[in-house]
Amino acid sequence: HVQLVESGGGSALAGGSVRLSCAASGYTFNTYSWFRQAPGKGREGVARILGGNDYYVDAVKGRFRISRDQSRNMWFLEMNNLKVEDSGMYYCAAASGVPRGYTGGWEYWGQGTQVTVS
Length: 118
Fold this sequence. Notes:
By secondary structure, this protein is mostly beta strands. The chain has no helices and 11 strands. A hairpin with a 5-residue loop joins strand 4 (31-37) and strand 5. The chain is globular.
C-alpha cells in the first residue's frame, strides 16, 4: 500500500532552520507538496513541485525550498529564517495527477510532523 512518512520536525529558534523529509513507499509520484496547520487554523498549502517547477505561498516565499530525491522516492522542505508563525503540524502530500493548487487532487498524505518555533 501507499505510505508517506514525515520526519525532521522539532523545535527551533526564530531565525533558525529546519529540514523536513517525506519518505514514500508503494508508489512513485509525479507531484509533491507540503502543507501545514497552525493551532486554531485550517490546513494550508506551503509548497509544491509540479512538473519541473517549484511553487510557494507568499508567506514562505524566499525562505522555504522544496526539493526531491527521485532515486530515494523522497522529498524535502528546507525551512530557513523561521518565524514563530511558521509553527504547526507539517504534512507531506502527493498526487498521481497534476493538481495546480492546494485545494484538491492530493490523494496521499503523511501523518504529520510538528514544528515549533519560539
